[in-house]
Specification:
This protein is α+β, with helices and mostly antiparallel strands. 32% of the residues lie in helices and 21% in strands. It contains nine helices and 14 strands. 49% of the residues are buried.
């Protein structure tokens, strides 16, 4: 099995990060801070990045990590208590952790892309996390510009989509050429997952946030494909997991006209993309081009995201061209 050691380390790290994030929710609720780019960040974002970067540094010390967060905000004198809070949660994983170590682990996410590197979003969907909705802890290994391993921990996602009020917490994982799997975060029993192969389009899934895509255009495309049900609205890369296990058939993220020059961050899509592809689906930009992960921290060569069960992908691309 390829990348077995990397996979085992990543599974353990994501499970630890998921426990940390859920403990923050249970203890105090996610009290969001505002970063320089005006986006929210929480104690849990920082704690999860510290835990995962710590695991990678301990085992794959030469591997850079390209992550969403850094510790600049926490290292300001006025934020000393916040850093102390993060440290107390990281102590759940490493009781000897110090504020200085925690900041250093977080800052390990400042790495640069290379021939082999990891990309990490410690909480993808921070607004969803703050609301008490869906979020994902997403980690991917990229070699030679190709995603070779991807994992997503989705602590709020129902284990059984047919029982939405049942047990929650799913971990998705995929290794290039070996298929996709899912497991409950509470156990060690992964099972294969596959996209919907019935040939009948079921449902569109899209972001909750209106500025993450052109919802009206996406609705028109879904309708042209015969998707008559209301779209599922979900935060984070959990949407990729939903398509990969057949809960939905199509995830669209088409830029609004005013933001057509916007390019996506690699950590927002790398793990989810390989999970769908290895589950039998297809992921591209709105022009049908594969996502390019070899051009820095942005998908600078791609515009928009189209992730589908594969069977309808060409029809989706044709509908996009027509609108």
């Amino acid at each position: 099995m390829a990348y077995e050691h990397e996979k085992n380390v990543a599974i353990a790290a994501l499970k630890a990060a998921a426990r940390l994030c859920e403990q923050v929710r249970h203890d105090r609720g996610p009290d969001a801070m505002t970063k320089a780019d005006h986006s929210p960040v929480t104690v849990a974002d920082f704690g999860a990045q510290a835990v995962i970067c710590r695991a990678i540094a301990a085992t794959f010390r030469n591997d850079p990590v390209v992550g969403e967060e850094d510790a600049a905000l926490l290292q300001k004198p006025a934020m000393a208590e916040r850093l102390a809070q993060v440290t107390r949660y990281v102590e759940m994983v490493d009781p000897t952790a110090t504020p200085e170590q925690v900041a250093a682990w977080i800052n390990r996410g400042d790495g640069q892309p290379s021939d082999r590197f990891w990309t990490l979003d410690p909480i993808d969907g921070t607004k969803g996390y703050v609301r008490g909705d869906q979020y994902a802890i997403a980690l991917a290994l990229i070699e030679g510009g190709q995603v070779v391993l991807g994992l997503m921990a989705c602590p709020a996602l129902p284990v059984d989509p047919q029982q939405p009020e049942g047990d929650r917490g799913v971990l998705f994982l995929a290794t290039r050429g070996e298929g996709a799997q899912a497991m409950a975060l509470a156990n060690e029993h992964p099972h294969p997952i596959h996209v919907n192969a019935s040939g009948q389009p079921l449902r569109l899934i899209e972001s909750v946030e209106v500025d993450h895509g052109d919802h009206s255009r996406q609705a028109a495309i879904a309708q042209s494909l015969g998707m008559v049900e209301e779209p599922i609205r979900m935060d984070s890369q959990a949407k990729y997991g939903a398509v990969a296990r057949g809960d939905a058939d199509l995830y669209l993220r088409l830029p609004q006209p005013a933001s057509s020059d916007r390019r996506e961050n690699i950590w927002d899509h790398a793990a989810g993309a390989i999970v769908i592809e290895e589950a039998g689906g297809r992921v591209s930009d709105l022009f049908g081009q594969p996502l390019e992960f070899s051009h820095g921290s942005k998908l600078s060569q791609n515009q928009g995201i189209v992730a589908s069960n594969g069977h309808i992908h060409d029809r989706v691309l044709a509908a996009i061209r027509d609108r």
